[in-house]
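Problem: given the chain below (280 residues), write out its structure.
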Amino acid sequence: MTFKIAGVQMDIALMDKAANLAAMENALRETTSTGARLTIFPECAVAGYCFDSLAEAMPYAESIPGESSQFFEKLCRETDSFVIYGTLERVNDKLFNACVLVGPTGVIGSYRKIHLPFLGIDRFTTPGDRPFEVHDLGDIRVGMNICYDGSFPESSRVMALGGADLVVLPTNWPPGSETFPLYVINTRAVENKIYYAAIDRIGVERGFAFIGGSKIVAPNGYDIQFADHTNFEILYGEIDVEKSRNKHIVRIADKHEINRFADRHPQWYDAISDPKTDES
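Solution.
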């Protein structure tokens, strides 16, 4: 039995939450009409990304649970589905770049972006302060990252070790990121033997022309669907959890077998967890 997911590569209007939520509702109704159980939207899909200051962004931030999660809870209840979307989370005087997993019963989980580039709203947000988590939806286990997090293989590995069948990456890839959809996303999938869905935005926001390139990748590293362009598109993929949970790959029995987890040697990986020393 498979679990159908969808990713929506869409344009986003800066500082127009109503327009963005309306567009997301239309897309969600389309994806669920085809049988998709989980629909994924880009990073900062609710409010936009290229804010010029913390003060400018704060009025468009929200709590979790909050306005947008309640909006999607109602839709998920109507469609018996789940959604992951990007938003800005406000906690007192702190702002986080966040994504939220919502289902028919409300917020199931959220994630705060840990790795922050010097770009857009991430110049003013606080690094995520919670560990990577895996959320069990019953038929599938899902982990969440955001954009630049995908450049750090440790984040996907932690979630894969935690049992994730699928890692989701809502993203806003700017020019200069073209190699990420071509190579990095496939690597994250095959090195962990998991499904990986990177869902990017399109359009131009304050001079940044986002590159699209959304894709859903299988545990063997092959593309399930690749939107190799900068147009609106809805991507679909079927998740077979048996393929992600069996890490033992038998190519020729007793002659060529590998196991993505059992073959690790963590005793040699201590340097990965050392505090960073290069602040340049």
